[in-house]
Structure formats: C-alpha cells, structure tokens
Amino acid sequence: GAVVSQHPSRVICKSGTSVKIECRSLDFQATTMFWYRQFPKKSLMLMATSNEGSKATYEQGVEKDKFLINHASLTLSTLTVTSAHPEDSSFYICSATKGGTEAFFGQGTRLTVV
Amino acid sequence: SQKIEQNSEALNIQEGKTATLTCNYTNYSPAYLQWYRQDPGRGPVFLLLIRENEKEKRKERLKVTFDTTLKQSLFHITASQPADSATYLCALAVNSGYSTLTFGKGTMLLVSP
Asked: Which residues of chain B have pLDDT under 50?
C-alpha cells in the first residue's frame, strides 16, 4: 500500500508562535503533495499544491506568507503556520499522489491556537 | 457557480440494509469522481474511482454509479454493518490524469445494530 504519515497529530500553541506540520510518504515517492484545511462539518478546502523542488501553488485566498510550504524531497513536505492566531485553529490534512488518480491522505493534524 | 452537494443530514440505517448516499454537482465536467471514507479526527481513505465514461463500479459491498446527464453519483453500501459508520466524501477531478480534487462536505452514515 501507500502510506502517508503526518506529524504531529495534535498541537496546541500560543497565539503569535509558529507551528510546523510534517507530511511524509513512507513507502513511495510523491510527485505532488497537497495541503487541505477542514472545519467541523465542512468539506476539505485545498490550500496549496506542492511539487518537490519548486514553489507551492496556493489557492485563492490563502496567504502564502502565513502558510509556508516547503517540499524539500520526494517524500517530505512541511506546512508552517506562522504567527498563529486562534482563527487558524483547524484540522490540517496533507495528501500525496504517485502521479496517478488516487490520493493518499495523512491522518491529519488538529491545531489549536490559544 | 460550481457546487458539489451531498446530503448534509446524517443517514441512519439498520444493520443489513443498503445505504445509498448521493453526490450532485453543478457547473463541473468531471473527468472522474472519487468516494472517500473519513472517520472522526482522521484523514480520508480512498474507496472507489469512477470515470466519466463509466456507469457503474463495484468493489466488494460497495457500488458507485455515475450519471453525467443528471450530474449525479450514487454510492451504495450493501449489507451495511456498524463498522461502516463514518462520513463519506465525494470528490471531483476535472483532468483525466493526475488532478486536484474538489470535495463535497460529506454525508455521515450511522448504521445501527
């Protein structure tokens, strides 16, 4: 199978601090990784698409300076929420593809900003 | 505007019955449609993919239909079990190969013993 590991699963941080979330494809090389945000009882909202070695493509309305994405290798992408505020509290999920149609999702990260 | 609509209310059924979930879309021409299962506090898990030129796909107790005229996909779980209780998401892709996915809000299914 194809496994995507996301870390941490839960994080609580103080307002104004930065938080980094890691997304790793454990047993395959991911040509593309995606970052989503999900509010309770809402759909997954695509935040950005990242390809290894190039800048991420952000969806409209997503602040690239706020949500920094680094795709350093074919198995690792990171999302850093900078200067976090309570409204950034959400469930963040990454997914990865091998280039085909199926997306493999991480287990998600519950971010709470206090 | 583009919309993907899934029943927002939870679907409650008894164990052993067939669950049918609906995904309707407007102003899309999807190349394919996928269904995912999501458990609380977890990421989605891929279940089935159906392409625009396919009418029906099956996998074990799961069946998906795709009607591009009605702009609708139906997702069926036969002989449902309490373990099938989860939220089911449909997602559309507009390109035939690798493509970004646009998700519906999902429908929660509750299967009672």
From this structure: none
